[in-house]
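Ops channel
N.P.: pipeline sanity check, posting one input/output pair.
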């Protein structure tokens, strides 16, 4: 599951993929509707790609993504800004506290996505 959140830690969008699917290719489609109002995009190292950084820069936002260790010229990372990424991580942990999401008993992606949406709504209302 790939998740995009807002600055307050709310779940804005998510995508379900197979376990072997890479993270960075999913981010482009997931972030496209959210980039226009964004000033910063915080992401994990798995989302470090030149294409994603270019997409973020074209909208005027700043990519706060730690570089992969194999980069020859790593881009600058502001560690103070990167600390705020924990809000999205906490929201993902709150999603996983809901048993149907954590255990993934559902065989169909639609059923699993419905449980994710239901949990996201209840977390929004809390």
């Amino acid at each position: 599951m790939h998740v995009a959140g807002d600055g307050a830690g709310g779940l804005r969008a998510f995508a379900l993929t197979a376990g072997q699917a890479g993270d960075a290719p999913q981010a482009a489609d997931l972030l496209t509707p959210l980039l226009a109002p964004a000033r910063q995009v915080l992401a994990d190292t798995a989302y470090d790609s030149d294409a994603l950084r270019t997409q973020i820069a074209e909208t005027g936002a700043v990519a706060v993504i730690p570089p992969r260790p194999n980069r020859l010229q790593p881009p600058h990372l502001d560690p103070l800004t990167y600390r705020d990424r924990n809000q999205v991580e906490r929201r993902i942990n709150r999603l996983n506290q809901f048993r149907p999401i954590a255990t993934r008993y559902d065989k169909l992606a639609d059923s699993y996505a419905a449980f994710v949406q239901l949990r996201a709504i209840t977390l929004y209302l809390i």
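N.P.: looks fine end to end. The beta strands are 2-5, 11-15, 40-42, 62-64.
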